[in-house]
Write a structure and sequence with these properties.
The protein has about 210 residues and is an alpha+beta fold. It has a single domain, classed as Nucleoside Triphosphate Pyrophosphohydrolase (Alpha-Beta Complex), CATH 3.90.79.10. Helices cover about 25% and strands about 30% of the residues. The chain is built from 4 helices and 11 strands, in the order ββββββββαββαβαα. The strands form 3 sheets. Strands 1-4-9-10-5-8 form a 6-stranded mixed sheet, with helices on both faces. Strand 9 and strand 10 form a beta hairpin. It is globular, with a radius of gyration of 17 Å.
Length: about 210
């Protein structure tokens, strides 16, 4: 699980990029959460690979959350944002490919931006210091997967992509699971942080309502 020293919340944005000001946790309330998760204490200049992704918390009609499974490495549905692609457009495309569902922009609620710095990440062309920049959304209505319309990439097929429906307690158990997947330790950090922020968002949303 994440601990306080691993997390820096960002207090300022400059020129469209994140400017890191203080090595402590600070609240940020403009346009959602912005947070850096840096468990390996990397410096910005040490990052040599960057990927931008969108992910979403989506529930089925039983209240379970859809979780992607790629050779026993778990995450929320979503994927890469293409060059200059609108975030909601990217999420709509990814959810149609992975879950076979159509999601309207009005059903997408933005939670925030969480940036992960990973030391020694197993990239496609070798080990890198990776920045995974993730924009998190919640889909505010339950959805049923349409497997006939799912269109997986060759990469997803190679890693035996499939979907699971999990309670929050079951997701906690997945995070504690140990296996030989070289990606799991890195992706566990991301799933843990995303679910924690979803829990906070859900409590705040109920309070406002």
């Amino acid at each position: 699980m994440l601990v306080l020293k691993d997390v820096i919340k960002i207090s300022k944005i400059k020129g469209g990029t994140v400017e890191f000001l203080y090595p402590l946790v600070l609240p940020f309330f403009v346009g959602g959460l912005i947070m850096l998760v840096n468990k390996d204490s990397l410096e910005r200049e040490e990052i040599n690979s960057r990927v931008h992704k969108v992910r979403a918390v989506i529930q089925d009609y039983n209240g379970n959350i859809y979780v992607t499974n790629m050779d026993d490495s778990y995450n929320l549905p979503g994927g890469r944002v293409e060059n200059k692609e609108d975030l909601k457009k990217a999420l709509k495309r990814e959810l149609k490919e992975e879950l076979g569902i159509n999601v309207t922009y009005g059903e997408m609620e933005y939670v925030g931006n969480i940036i992960f710095w990973h030391k020694g990440f197993p990239g496609e062309k070798g080990v890198v210091n990776r920045e995974n920049n993730v924009d998190l959304f919640v889909i505010d209505v339950p959805k049923e997967v349409n497997m006939e319309k799912v269109k997986l990439t060759n990469y997803e097929k190679h890693y035996h992509f499939h979907l699971m429906e999990c309670s929050l307690k079951q997701i906690d158990a997945l995070l504690k699971e140990k296996n030989d997947n070289e990606y799991k330790n890195f992706i566990d950090v991301e799933l843990d942080a995303l679910i924690q922020e979803y829990k906070k968002y859900r409590k705040e949303d109920k309070y406002v309502g």
